[in-house]
Write a structure and sequence with these properties.
Structural class: mainly alpha
Strand content: under 5%
Distance between the termini: 140 Å
Order of helices and strands: H
Helix content: over 70%
Length: about 100
């Protein structure tokens, strides 16, 4: 009977140890998963910010180009007007 109790005790201790180990591994796995998800989220956020910055830069360049084009067009029109005025002035002098 004493041997039987000893054997049962050993078995219980082993079972307890096994459960503890299982729990520890599960916790470790959970933490690892949590860390992985956090890293994934961080990378996604970084990518999103980078994309946002890229789009903003693209928009800024486009706007700059548009303004430059507008300015160039305006200058061209003014130049045409001046040439027209000059020609008109010459015509009046000739007549």
């Amino acid at each position: 009977m004493l041997v039987r109790n000893l054997w049962d005790e050993k078995k219980r201790k082993k079972e307890k140890k096994r459960k503890k180990e299982k729990k520890r591994k599960k916790e470790k796995k959970r933490k690892k998963e949590k860390k992985r998800k956090k890293e994934k989220k961080r990378k996604k956020e970084k990518k999103r910010k980078k994309e946002k910055k890229r789009k903003k830069e693209k928009k800024r360049k486009k706007e700059k180009k548009r303004k430059k084009e507008k300015k160039r067009k305006k200058e061209k029109e003014e130049e045409e007007e001046m040439k027209e005025e000059e020609t008109k002035g010459r015509r009046e002098k000739n007549e």
